[in-house]
Amino acid sequence: MRPNLPRPRRGRQRTLGQSLVEFSLVLPVMLLLVLFGVDFGRVFLGWVQLNNVVREAANFAAENPTAWNTVNPNTVVQAQYQTLVRNEAAGINCVLPSPIPNPTFSGGLNAVPAIGTPVFVRIPCRFSFITPVIGGMFGGSLPVAASASYPTRNGMIPNIPTASVTPMPSATASPSASASASASASASAPASPTPTPMCEVPNFNNIKAENAATAWAQAGFTTQLVFNPLAPAQWPSGGGNTTGQSIAAYLYRACGSTGITITWNGN
């Protein structure tokens, strides 16, 4: 009788080799799908954050519509706009244009916009990929843009009716009476009052104290600022930020008025 010898397991070895071949074929596809999900998930999250940044920028422009006026622009507010957008977009893996595009007003930049007119803000950027494979398929980055619109909350009020003045009929008089009447009228008639020019108080929130006087003058005011603590003969380098103001920003005051005090940290 023949001894019972173990039979070779050819079928099991063939199944194991087939599984390894299938796994090696499926693994690259699975990795590619995972990389797609990671990179495009980051792009979608960044796009949502970019929309929030654009809404913040449009809200700021709606509160300061006269800052981009071509007749009397406010460079301090424009710089605050640029800083606001870059700070809000700091956590996004997105390359913003430099400088940030200015907001667009429906009435143009040559006139004071009417309250309620829309202001548009559109900011493009390019999202970069973290995986070389996906980045190579899209040229290294993906262009994305977001836009928002807000109604302006500062400016002129349109369609205000004005009263019409009807001239009184002139009476006929003799030359001597007319001369005496005109002389007495010119002597007794009070001079018409000159309208007081009004200027908009700038926003001195967290800016360099040494730039406060420039912003005050650019707003049209002719008086000097009062600093608390007193302004030094030479401003400190790298410090001296403002912390408050005695008159709220964006209010209108006489251009020759005094009494505004700027507080700063004294560093």
Word description of this protein:
This protein is of the alpha+beta class and 267 residues long. The protein folds into 2 domains: 30-151, no CATH class; 198-264, Trypsin Inhibitor V, Chain A, CATH 3.30.10. It is 36% helix and 16% strand. The chain has helices spanning 10-63, 75-88, 132-137, 175-188, 212-218; strands at residues 94-95, 104-105, 118-128, 141-151, 198-200, 226-228, 242-245, 252-254, 261-264. Strands 1, 2, 3 and 4 form a 4-stranded antiparallel beta sheet that branches. Helix 1 (10-63) packs antiparallel against helix 2. The radius of gyration is 35 Å and the shape is elongated.
The tally of structural domains comes to 2
**Rg result:** 35 Å
Structural class: alpha+beta
What is the count of DSSP helices, taking H or I runs of 4+ residues?
5
Q: Beta-strand percentage? A: 15-25%
Uncertain segments are: none
Q: What is the general shape? A: elongated
List the helices and strands and how they pair.
Blueprint lengths: L9 H54 L11 H14 L5 E2 L8 E2 L12 E11 L3 H6 L3 E11 L23 H14 L9 E3 L11 H7 L7 E3 L13 E4 L6 E3 L6 E4 L3
Parallel strand pairs: 6-9
Antiparallel strand pairs: 1-3, 2-3, 3-4, 5-8, 7-9
Helix pairs in contact: 1-2
